[in-house]
């Protein structure tokens, strides 16, 4: 068996663009993957075409060899775009390997260490306590969710005194706790919007009395010593990692004791192959892994197989989508968990290629906050 073609499809899930990749082989077996198209979106298809020529004619089941080859043929270590492209290729190769063997991918990773994969729902807003109660109750009733992630910011970070925002956040979380069942868990994603680590520690102290599931990425990821300092000054589980790429960056974070939970993205770091290395390093540091997954049904399928086989897995991010016509049978939560599909080889999800004929792209770009004085806010 050898690789004969690589095709890219610019699609969307709800209101976000998503890039799908298909690799075809001489035996008629094809595999699918997804790249995290952080932007510029349209830079990825030509990059993937370039990488295809480095694996064309190779046996797709040699996943480790081919992923190493793609990384090592780069003149410099690949960054966000390069690793996103390699991630999609890695996914597709594992899918082919599973289908060729007639096994789910998680069986090729050593087999499942758990029978199902727990998920939480990212809400990404800071709704009023009653609205938060209603929203979480509906998600619990429909999908069985008992874990959720909110934003800790009730207003613009820069529109008023910081201490007021901190107090408002603590009071708000306390009210949510009063209105929701005690077994519901709430994480908070601070979106790396805080510049000073001491402010991040103050916000952590405000939510600490109400037992957050974790406190995610309050500061930027680049300066590892700041994370070590922050972790030493908070009493809540500290999570980060969606903006880190390789095992070397995660090793620096973990060696500095900068996080309790890491959140690498399987569509960012270089795929399943690199994700497993990162997770193994975390396991050796007594750190759990909660993969970043704001993506679509294909990326979710890839994550499920990784999580099923990874011992130090904690919980997977998943927000139900409303629009992804190319995914005919997506994984969806049952009782707050994703069930495995042991009778389906590869990722266990079907892609409707007829739905991919029409390009279904939607433009998206990150919004930048402005401070009252007109300066762009950090980050």
From TrEMBL:
Any Pfam family matching the protein: MR_MLE_C
Metal-binding is among the record's keywords: no
InterPro entries per record: DgoD-like, Enolase-like_C_sf, Enolase-like_N, Enolase_C-like, Galactarate_dehydratase_3, Mandel_Rmase/mucon_lact_enz_CS, Mandelate_racemase_C, Mandelate_racemase_N_dom
Domain spans labelled Mandelate racemase/muconate lactonizing enzyme C-terminal: 129-237
Superkingdom of origin organism: Bacteria
Gene Ontology terms for molecular function: lyase activity; magnesium ion binding
Keywords: Lyase, Plasmid
One GO BP annotation of this record: amino acid catabolic process
Protein name per the record: Mandelate racemase/muconate lactonizing enzyme C-terminal domain-containing protein
Organism this protein belongs to: Rhizobium favelukesii
């Amino acid at each position: 068996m050898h690789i004969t073609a690589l095709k890219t499809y610019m699609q969307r899930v709800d209101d976000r663009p998503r890039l799908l990749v298909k690799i075809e082989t001489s035996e008629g077996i094809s595999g699918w993957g997804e790249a995290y198209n952080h932007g510029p979106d349209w830079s990825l298809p030509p990059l993937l075409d370039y990488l295809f020529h480095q694996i064309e004619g190779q046996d797709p089941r040699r996943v480790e060899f081919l992923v190493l080859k793609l990384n090592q043929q780069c003149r410099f270590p690949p960054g966000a775009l390069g690793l996103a492209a390699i991630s999609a290729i890695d996914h597709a190769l594992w899918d082919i390997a599973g289908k060729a063997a007639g096994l789910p991918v998680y069986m090729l990773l050593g087999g499942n260490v758990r029978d199902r994969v727990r998920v939480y729902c990212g809400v990404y807003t800071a709704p009023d306590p009653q609205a938060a109660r209603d929203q979480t109750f509906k998600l619990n009733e429909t999908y069985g969710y008992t874990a959720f992630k909110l934003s800790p910011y009730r207003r613009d970070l820069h529109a008023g005194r910081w201490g007021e925002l901190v107090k408002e956040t603590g009071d708000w979380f306390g009210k949510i706790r009063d209105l929701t069942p005690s077994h519901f868990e709430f994480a908070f994603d601070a979106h790396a919007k805080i510049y000073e680590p001491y402010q991040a520690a103050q916000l952590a102290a405000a939510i600490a009395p109400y037992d957050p599931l974790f406190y995610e990425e309050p500061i930027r990821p680049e300066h590892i010593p700041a994370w070590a300092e922050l972790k030493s000054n908070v009493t809540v589980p500290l999570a980060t990692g969606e903006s880190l790429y390789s095992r070397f960056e995660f090793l620096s974070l973990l060696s500095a004791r900068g996080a309790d939970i890491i959140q690498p993205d399987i569509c960012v770091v270089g795929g399943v192959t690199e994700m497993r290395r990162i997770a193994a390093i975390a396991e050796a540091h007594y750190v759990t892994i909660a993969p970043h997954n704001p993506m679509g049904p294909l990326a979710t399928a890839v994550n499920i197989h990784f999580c099923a086989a990874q011992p130090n897995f904690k919980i997977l991010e998943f927000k139900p989508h409303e629009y992804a016509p190319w995914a005919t049978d997506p994984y969806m939560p049952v009782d707050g968990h994703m069930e495995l599909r042991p009778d389906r080889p590869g990722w266990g999800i079907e892609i409707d290629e007829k739905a991919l004929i029409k390009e279904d792209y939607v433009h998206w770009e990150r919004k930048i906050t402005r401070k009252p004085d007109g300066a762009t806010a950090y980050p």
